[in-house]
Structure formats: structure tokens, C-alpha cells
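Can you please make up a whole protein chain along with its C-alpha cells because I've never seen that pairing?
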Amino acid sequence: MEAPMKKYICLVSLILVVVVLAGVERTDGAGECGRASPDREAWKLAPCAMAAQDQHADVSDSCCAQVKKLGQNPSCLCAVMLSNTAKNSGVNPEIAVTIPKRCNLADRPVGYKCGAYTLP
């Protein structure tokens, strides 16, 4: 009876090790925006489309709310603003990086280098 119990414990231990290692690999493989790609996250900034193309356009409350959420992770916010989705939708990165300031976000990532751009 003792031998089957040892096999069972070894099997359970092996399964636990595999599960833990799989979780660690997934975490290490996460990008700037965690498990979501910057292109996917860019869709959340759809309310910012006009403000990201024209520095004189009003920035909507819904845009500011999304920028505030993404701005908690400056590297994600930058990756989103410089993503292929943003570029393909006509976003001007020079203007897009001004949106956190135009939203008057007190806790925005000031001076954060975003590609060739710096968040004011």
C-alpha cells in the first residue's frame, strides 16, 4: 500500500510543478500590456481618435477615463499609442502623447520616453 501512495504523491508533485512552470512562463511572456496586445488595447482608445489627430480637438471624458486606466502602466500606454492599430487609424504620435496632459491627469507619466516622443 505504501508504494502506490508514493507513486500518487510523485504524480501529484509532478503535475504541480508543470502547472507552476506553465504559469511562470506565461507571466514572463507578457508584453507591455500584460496578456493583451497593444493593438487590442488600442481599441479602448477609440474615443480619443479625433484628439489624437488634432491637438485643438476636445478630449472627451470617455477618452480621458481610458487614458487614465492605461496611464497606470506608462509602457502599455506608449505601446498602445505607437501600435499598428493606432498608426492605421491615423493617430499622430506627437499629438497622441499630449492627451494625458490635455485630460489634466495629475498622476500622468510626465517625462516618460515613448519611442521618439516624451510625454509632457
Notes: The longest helix spans residues 2-28. Residues 5-28 have pLDDT under 50 and may be disordered. The domain at 35-119 is CATH 1.10.110.10 (Hydrophobic Seed Protein).
